[in-house]
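Risk mitigation, structural track. In case the binding assays with 6-O-phosphono-beta-D-glucopyranose fail to produce interpretable data, a predicted complex structure has been prepared as a fallback.
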Amino acid sequence: MGNIIRAFIFDLDGVITDTAEFHFLAWKQLADEEGVSFTREDNEQLRGVSRRESLSRMLKGRPIDEPTAQVWMTRKNDYYVRYLDQVTPDDLLPGVGAFLQSARAAGIKLGIGSASKNAKNVLQRLGVIDLFGVIGDGYSVVNSKPAPDLFIWVAGGLQTPPNEAVVFEDAEAGIDAALKGGFWTVGVGQSNVQAAHLLSADGLATLTVEAVQQRFA
Ligand code: BG6
Ligand code: MG
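Fallback model:
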């Protein structure tokens, strides 16, 4: 096919680090306070989607007026941000640091495409924020994943067309967003989405930059 891969765009939660447990604990605290049942299994449905969509999924169809929704989201975020104080460079998922360094050494541009409004805070605490040329987060676009807008926004910032960029994602909403945007995709973790040009990996520790480039070349 003769593709040249010029950019890698990474989702944050579940790919670079794992903050799903902190999101769970924060939503759980809010749910308990409000008498809403919410389990770890329910939390899996919140992966990769925006804060507002997460609240709707947590409520499982229970109606809420918008002013109350805003107050509840602020409360959840306050709980979540307190957990982020614990995040250090040790919380990079296995192999991430080496993979990013090796991609940079290969001249590949690096970007982040995260639904989280806390993405920059998390990247700062992980000590990797300076490795990324463009950081797309929960403030960058109006339509969040599974819309392709965020990844397209990041690719634009990296001056790279989608068909020369690979998106690394752990959540179905993110894989759908990347495929819709015309990106090559690597499903990380338990992702079982199948597509002709999808490469799957347990985590970045099991991948090399060369293997990814060759897969999509
Ligand atoms: C995503 C997480 O990265 O960010 C979701 O996978 C989360 O679970 C979303 O809801 C929004 O995060 P935040 O930090 O803006 O509330
Ligand atoms: Mg994710």
